[in-house]
Amino acid sequence: MAREQLKTLTEPMYYILLSLIKENHGYGIMQMISELTEGRVSVGAGTMYNLLGRFEKEEIIVPVAEENRRKIYRLSDKGRQILQEEFQRLNKMVSDGQKFMEYDGERPEPPEDDSRGSGISIPIEERIREYQQSMQDSQNGHSAGEGQNTSNEETDKKHLSNGGLGKGVLIPT
Q1: What Gene3D superfamilies would the database entry show (predicted)?
Q2: How many CB atoms lie within 10 A of CB 37?
Q3: 75 in Cβ contact with 21 (< 8 Å)
């Protein structure tokens, strides 16, 4: 498990490391997580022992004793640093979420089309009406104008390119 893989921790990883701030063993870790989260998070034995092995191999945790076939672990300095970084990241996410939840202003409008291909160039309703009209015209045998092909295949290709919406519609460039 490379350090890069621990940029963000899964919930079980986070709670296992959190429960190893003080020395603890596998079963104690599972009990602590369940108690701490009021049963919301449950880490199975297989997941926990797999993660403990990986954490030990990466020197994120260190074994400190073995009593009655129970290995007792604690966080290493590296593990404390990883846990602290994750704690700060989660707090930042909560802070950002709080800002959004408390925001009562209006959203800014999307930018106007500046004729350079950015923003919304043609409202979708208008493009749909154009497509429906051209389909009606081609079915009724009306000419679409001199020099234009009115076959259904050509009309479909023209109108169905770019998701059926035509160039620039609702697709910022």
Answers
A1: Winged helix-like DNA-binding domain superfamily/Winged helix DNA-binding domain
A2: 13
A3: yes
Q: What is the pLDDT of residue 6?
A: 67
Angle between helices 26-36 and 11-19 in degrees, nearest 10 = 110
Alpha helices, DSSP H, located in the chain: 11-19, 26-36, 45-57, 77-102, 124-140, 152-160
**Residue indicated by tokens 């260190």:** 62
**Cβ partners under 8 Å of residue 34, min gap 6:** 41, 42
* Domain 3-102, CATH: 1.10.10.10
Element (H, E) at 63: strand 61-67
Through-space distance between the first and last CA atoms of the chain, rounded to whole angstroms: 39
CA dihedral 114, 120, 121, 127 (to 10 degrees): -170
Cα(39)–Cα(113) distance, integer angstroms = 52
Does the CA dihedral 148-152-155-158 come out positive or negative? negative
* 30 and 48 Cβ atoms separated by less than 8 Å: yes
Return the structure tokens found at 164: 């059926």
pLDDT digits (tens, 9 = 90+) for 131-164: 778 778 877 775 544 444 444 555 444 444 444 4
For the chain, give every residue range classified as CATH 1.10.10.10: 3-102
**Whole-angstrom distance, CA of residue 17 vs CA of residue 14:** 5
